[in-house]
Design goal:
4-stranded antiparallel beta sheet; 22 helices; homodimer; Glutamate carboxypeptidase 2 (chains A, B)
């Protein structure tokens, strides 16, 4: 009995000891984290809310006020001062590092002692009319110096004389119409075109191709005047004395014209000016509509079709030259601008990623402005500034994003996206291997109606999800999300019941990142109502009237619209940098490719007989898109079972997501445009602003209409279809399980 | 007392319970692995030993025997049969997957009914001498059909007639000498040159540039005859009736001439033959030295310098044409070969990586042969086969490499590296993002003396470490390592006390991987004693006498040399695929860059006055190399403290190592050669075989000597120095800590 009792006790104790040990073991086992530092998305979500809520309209107002007091053209002392101030403040806000990155690039300035202008001269060569040398200075800025007068940057010097020919917007089709239908030849003449519809550099290229010896561009009220709105300062319309500055390069993504493909450092070899990329060979000058009336009113020649007529009270005759009464008068351009290699400064700030410091999410926008930059670009720069401030606040609370965040204040965007392109060239290897996404931050507002987003298809879902978490800035829409407000105003009717998102074209700093390097990219801003407001961009665009006041008085008095834009841009980079799984939606890319293939094939099928004769087929493209669609669907299905706790598995899938956009890059570039390498998205050769899908095919089809050798032109189309099909197939391969 | 006792007891028990729980907790905490599946390098090392030891000479012998019985030219049925057999056997050996990947590329074959030959014709046009239509068939192969006669693949059809001009090796400098010193013009004539020194395609290009209407190439005993060795079958020298086949393209890395930049799939757009890349425009034909004597013996014109004389018992006069007695005789080439689009087949086998399936290590070599391919390529293919067999054995023991292993049997290498290049084009996106290294497996033996390794500098250390673990195959060297044996025979005297390792040139399938895509690459084979054996490649190269027997009887009767090569190639891919930390040595790259910069600068300083006049400096390059050297040193220092247990930290560092080679790629390519993109290594424009360091600078300097516009030529040099400096700086950036 006693023995048995002892035994029982012994067993009992052993069991208890074992149980306690086991319990401890189990607790220990499960208490130990499988991996350190795997913050989950719930925590990240909480920080996102704080990040968005921290952004304040009054702060944005203050930033905008601060950086629009003085003109800060690229290459000037004032623009360096603002750069230094931004650097200082970003450091104070708490970024890990902020550096100033200089390049020496080709810029262009008017000659200070010999102004640019255009004259009407009589037969003795005497000037009977001269265009104005400057815009009337807006009130409050009378004492400001260093306001650069309106000019076309990179115009060569020259004083060509000749008869004027009016060519509407100066588009390829306008010149066709001029030469074919109206039988007017622009060769040896000075062309005058209105601003709008396409990028001004394309107008200049077209004028050169047509043999013109000079080109004048003017802002017609039809294109730069909103109905019922007063001219600045009483409203936001362009006064008659205002004119649009702008560069007239055809860089096609080259950045600094003298160092295509390489960063413009001190030791970098520079091409001669004659060999520089995209420099126009004929003088160019911009004028306002007061001056334009004087040049146009006496023109002779045919009366144009109605769609060539602007809103001025003149007949818009084509020319060449003036009517009989003024036959002996000619035009003379007087252009004395200088190209000069000039130092520019980007400001680059960083927050180092906690877990994946070698993955980059970039928010970049330019700082240089033609004059004050009230809208372009400081409405965007103010938003970046507020984003950095808010991110700094989070950092001080212990937050650190999973991936590295990079903030950029670019210089010399107005001179051909130079600051952003040179930095992209400088860092191309790193960006190609490490960049997850680039969000652009140019002008944050160009209208008072609703949100506008242009982005790569894989960002669509993130944009929708995010805008549902942001409040509408519109009065009377309390409690309404930005998504709802946007959806109500701009439904994507043709395609789907969701707010419209457009393709990225070019014309801002995302270009080198998206179109050359293949980094997923997007931009967001507040915009006008495109259905009712027909003017190009916004009326005071690139004029001296782009002031702080034009925003404060008219575009966004409460600064809530800018705050909403800040929340969109900031929210995008936050989610891209901090989500465990990259918030990129491959299915959206598949959908988009399907639509683009349909639409480019439709364009081809406008020539059914020739398609037949030259045996052109889009089948290989459709089959590639089908292949991609299946791969995308399977990819997202596999994501359902992904073990996000396994850092390698997660990284592998994220790499697939990151590199998808890269897969659309053709290292050989589009025909004749080595720096436009994105096979799905690039501007067409005929308008830098408009993003075309399958631009290689688009351009080849565009050329069919004007082709002398149909066989050769259709061979070009077939080759481009083949390249597109291959590229889509190759992209699909990147989505299959790696092995 | 009682109460106190109870309390004490209570405390005692509590302490015991807590201690037990704590003990359990501690055991549980530490028993749990931080991460699953982190095999360490000790385990990997044990498997490496087994992997190397499993490779057997008799197995290699059997593989070689099996795949050299019948001619297997690219595009023929027999070569497809071998592909199917390889596919089947690789599956049996245990690869995870093996697939056949076809492409439709441009190949070239003699016309079966109209043979190619060269005639001496009299003034009536009658043939007084004709070159042989085929090589005498080696004994034992008399009944074999489908032996293609010697021809120059891709020669256009044609029957040019004219006088002969002898131009030594047909190098750029030979043509200079011909035209400048000897005042002989090749225009309108048929050029005859001896094989050797440079790639035959470069000879053809030079003849075209000189205006020749045809070119004949012959194998001179001076270049294809080893002293004291009998001709095949009694020895391994080239019989007088033997001739060297080979393609005469100037592809510069384009792959299929009709689909440059894209894989030659069914849907792929093809250029017309006229627009095809690198196709020669003049007829070309190869002959042996028996025929050559007959063409050369009666030649007239000047007696050449001694270094133009071969080993035939003739005077090697330059021409043009024959001596007085034979003045009326001319030469006629009769070439009837056809270019035709033909299906080729790569075999691709894989072992999926256990932890990083999205990282690729590739072992690739070609399978197609001009005839039997006893040496080229089957000595290499047999080695790959044995490597796959050995890897399969490890798999069956439960091993699986950390990264994915890819084995490739390429087709149509002999027609311009087409199989490997098309696959690289097809998979470019994946390879660019995922490929760690490419090891080439062409001919495994070209001599009986010692090891030869050509590879990228970052592989040097791995090659040395590995060869110390492999036994010397030489008789009487039992217990001596391959490293020691190699070191003793070929010390790298100029540079360092270690076995010589050379730069990669081109001429085999690594080209697209290394020079176009920037994937770390290397090759290894057994070679001759370069100090005493002066002949080019090996005597029977590309002749019908490259049989199984030439290897078995002369080159490697024990098959131990081939085993040693198998162990080097196999060991390299094993270590690259299975090491936790990639075995790439960045410091070695820094050292190499330093030497290359010195040596290219010396080349420039041969023109001290012009360097001064045109203000040419290599300073930016030296400063970039210095920068890289510091970055490399710091990188390796940081590796000392790397936490290899953290999978993300490890992956980040491995990515830096992997992408270093990629950083030397210039997406714009070298001038005029868009597919030669490696700024540090590429063949010069004057010889595809010879790898030059800083080839852009090298070519620009080469052109100086013959330049009419010195200013322009030196501007080219300056531009190339700037590009090289930028590229080295950019590569250095990839080594700094990411953020």
């Amino acid at each position: 009995m006693r023995k048995e009792g002892r035994l029982t006790r012994w067993i009992g104790w052993t069991v208890i000891v074992a149980a306690l040990l086991l319990l401890g073991f189990i607790i220990g086992w499960f208490a130990k984290p499988t991996r350190p530092n795997t913050p989950n998305d719930t925590v990240s979500g909480k920080y996102l809310r704080e990040f968005l809520d921290e952004m304040r309209p009054e702060q944005i107002r203050e930033h905008l006020r601060k950086f629009t007091r003085l003109p800060h053209l690229a290459g000037t002392e004032q623009n360096l001062k603002y750069a230094e101030q931004i650097m200082k403040e970003w450091k104070e806000y708490g970024l890990d590092s902020v550096e100033m990155v200089p390049y020496d690039v080709l810029l262009s300035y008017p000659n200070k002692t010999q102004p640019n202008y255009i004259s009407i001269i009589d037969q003795l060569g005497s000037e009977v009319f001269n265009t104005s040398l400057a815009e009337p200075v807006p009130e409050g800025y009378e004492d400001v110096s260093n306001i650069v007068p309106p000019y076309s940057a990179f115009s060569p010097k020259g004083q060509p004389e000749g008869d004027l020919v009016y060519v509407n917007y100066g588009r390829t089709e306008d010149f066709f119409q001029l030469e074919r239908d109206m039988r007017v030849n622009a060769t040896g003449r000075i062309v005058i075109v209105r601003y709008g519809k396409i990028f001004r550099g394309n107008k200049v290229k077209n004028a050169m191709l047509a043999g013109a010896k000079g080109i004048i561009m003017f802002s017609d009220p039809a294109d730069y005047w909103a109905a019922g709105v007063l001219p600045y300062p009483d409203g936001w319309n362009l006064p008659g004395g205002g004119a649009q500055r702008g560069n007239v390069l055809n860089l096609n993504g080259a950045g600094d014209p003298l160092t295509p493909g390489y960063p413009a450092k001190e030791y970098t070899y520079r091409l001669s000016l004659e060999d520089g990329v995209g420099l126009p060979k004929i003088p160019v000058h911009p004028i306002g509509f007061h001056d334009a009336i004087n040049l146009l009113k006496n023109m002779g020649g045919p009366i144009p079709p109605n769609n060539w007529k602007g809103a001025l009270n003149i007949s818009y005759r084509i020319g060449p030259g003036f009517t009989d009464d003024f036959k002996s008068q000619k035009l003379r351009m007087n252009i004395h601008s200088n190209n000069q290699i000039t130092r520019i400064y980007n400001v680059i700030g960083r927050i180092r990623g906690a877990l994946e410091p070698d993955r980059y999410v970039i928010l970049g926008g330019h700082r240089d402005a033609w004059v004050f930059g009230g809208i372009d670009p400081m409405s965007g720069a103010a938003v970046v500034h507020e984003t950095v401030r808010s991110a700094g606040r989070l950092i001080s609370k212990g937050w650190r994003p999973r991936r590295t965040l990079i903030f950029a204040s670019w210089d010399a965007e107005e001179f051909g996206l130079q600051g952003s392109t040179e930095w992209a060239e400088d860092n191309a290897k790193l960006l190609q291997e490490r960049a997850v996404a680039y969000i652009n931050a140019d002008s944050a507002i160009e209208g008072m109606y609703t949100l506008r987003v242009d982005c790569t298809p894989s960002l669509h879902t993130l944009v929708y999800d995010l805008t549902k978490q942001i409040a509408s800035p519109e009065e009377g829409e309390e409690g309404v999300s930005l998504y709802e407000s946007w959806h109500k105003r701009d439904n994507w009717t043709d395609n789907r019941d969701a707010p419209r998102i457009s393709k990225l074209g070019s014309g801002s700093d995302f270009e080198a990142y998206f179109i050359r390097l293949g980094i997923a990219a997007g931009r967001a801003r507040y915009t006008k109502n495109k259905k009712t407001e027909r003017y190009s961009s916004y009326p005071v665009y690139h004029s001296v009237y782009e002031t702080f006041e034009v925003v404060e008085k008219f575009y966004d008095p409460s600064f809530k619209r800018l705050r909403a834009v800040a929340q969109v841009r900031g929210g995008l980079i936050f989610q891209l940098a901090d989500s465990q799984l990259l918030p990129l939606d491959v299915n959206q890319y598949a959908d988009a490719l399907g639509k683009y293939a349909q639409s480019i094939a439709q364009l081809g099928h406008r020539h059914p007989e020739e398609m037949n004769t030259y045996r052109v087929s889009f089948d290989s493209l459709f089959s590639a898109v089908e292949n991609f669609t299946v791969a995308a669907r399977d990819f997202h299905e596999r994501l359902q079972t992904l073990n996000k706790e396994d850092p390698l598995q997660l990284r592998i899938v994220n790499d697939q997501l990151m590199y998808l956009e890269r897969a659309f890059i053709d290292p050989l570039g589009l025909p004749g445009r080595p720096f436009y390498r994105h096979v799905i998205f690039a501007p067409s050769s005929h308008n830098k602003y408009a993003g075309e899908s399958f631009p290689g095919i688009y351009d080849a089809l565009f050329d069919i209409q004007n082709s002398a050798d149909k066989q050769k032109s259709w061979e070009d189309v077939k080759r481009q279809i083949s390249i597109a099909a291959f590229t889509v197939h190759a992209a699909a391969m990147t989505l299959t399980p790696p092995s």
